[in-house]
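Supplementary Note 2. Why include the ligand at all?

Several targets in our set were suspected to adopt different conformations when bound, so apo predictions alone were not considered sufficient. For every target with a known small-molecule partner we therefore ran a joint prediction. The input for NDP is given below.
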Amino acid sequence: MIEKVRCLIIGSGPAGYTAAIYASRANLSPLMYEGMQPGGQLTTTTEVENFPGYPEGTTGTALMEDLRKQAERFGADIRFGTVTATDLSSAPYKVTIDGEKIIEADTIIISTGATAKYLGLPDEQKYAGSGVSACATCDGFFYRKMTVAVVGGGDTACEEAIYLAGLASKVFLIVRKNILRASKIMQDRVLENPKIEVLFECETLGLTGDKVVQGANLVKRRGESDESQLHIDIDGFFLAIGHKPNSDIFKPWIETDEVGYIQTVPGTPRTNVAGVFASGDVADPHYRQAITAAGSGCQAAIEAERYLSEKGL
Ligand code: NDP
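The joint prediction is reproduced in token form.
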């Protein structure tokens, strides 16, 4: 059975929920499919202290629950389900949910987010929320005057190491190659920072600690004749080895960069397909914050409303 809507929102992080709040208040009767992880990446973090409006802080789960309730209060239809196919060749656009149900939508707001990459160590799960994080801006504050490690050698890792060096007493940067991939300026900032020690040619074998992270076991020059093992004492372990934007399902139609981030007209959430907008981390390689995602969700809903009104839909 085909269901027809004016505004379909795909994904339920801060971008999607904010889009739902604005779209429902603009009488677009939005339908949202939450995706596999209702609430998005923030539900995997613990405390959130940098979202404006919460002077005492909140948790990622509570924040998402508040946003969801706010969207429902204005009539947003929020459902559990995942997009499994899309046909954006012509309007109204067709989206398949869970392999069976078809939605036809005049406008679509894509807010499917991005997924932080992890090393794949069982310890990353074991210490999730207890010392392991994939977001220094979100969690760095909890490590003031402590020792942390950042994994990665790209711009994100360097940026996070520098950010953390402003809070922590010591930062190890664990880099698997003998060079940093980051831009020269970021490399210089890292190498010149007295609080950052770069451990080149090192890989993480596992984490140690009783309930919370207290250390990491590393291997240096794995597979070489001079391979050696070392242990570092740390309180926090930050992954910064890249993100994967959740855009694959739209790729035949929607232009992305080489990493998969949806390309939008600068300063707007407009994609290359008229009436299809992208907001939040799926289109943002740079900021990736709940508040910036929420802001772009608001923009996407305003754009959807204007598009529908221009088309008389
Ligand atoms: P990148 O893909 O650029 O870098 C990922 C880093 O993680 C690399 O050093 C890579 O190592 C390492 N890595 C990947 N997998 C593993 C693994 N399994 N074990 C250990 N290390 C691993 O990702 P970024 O998130 O840093 O950057 C993404 C894009 O965003 C880039 O284009 C970057 O320039 C841009 N960016 C720009 C910023 C700015 O301009 N201020 C800030 C942040 C990002 P290896 O080098 O060995 O492959």
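The radius of gyration is 21 Å. The mean pLDDT is 95. Comparable summaries for the other entries are listed in the accompanying table.
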